[in-house]
Design brief:
Elements: H1 2-20, H2 30-46, H3 51-80
Helix pairs in contact: 1-2
Length: about 80
């Protein structure tokens, strides 16, 4: 899960860098301190509730549901072609 937090941090850092390049805009350090606070809360909650496992289960379920949807979409398109039974 720290990888996801690092990705979010560097994404926010990149956005902040781009915005601060405009000159008139002042980018403060609230984004990075917010992500740091989120990491602290995540680590304290992860001791009691395995968030990484829950995210993996939800991701697996979403992949499965997306696969079924794509299968049904392909079958529907296959049936719409004339001359194919």
């Amino acid at each position: 899960m720290t990888i996801i937090l690092n990705i979010l941090y560097f994404f926010a850092l990149g956005i902040t860098f781009i915005i601060s390049g405009f000159g008139d805009v002042q980018a403060n350090n609230a984004i990075s301190s917010g992500i740091t606070a989120m990491a602290t809360y995540y680590n304290s909650l992860d001791e009691y509730l395995p968030i990484t496992t829950l995210v993996a289960i939800i991701a697996f379920d979403l992949i499965f549901e997306l696969s079924v949807f794509i299968y049904k979409l392909v079958r529907w398109g296959y049936q719409k072609v004339p001359g194919i039974t």
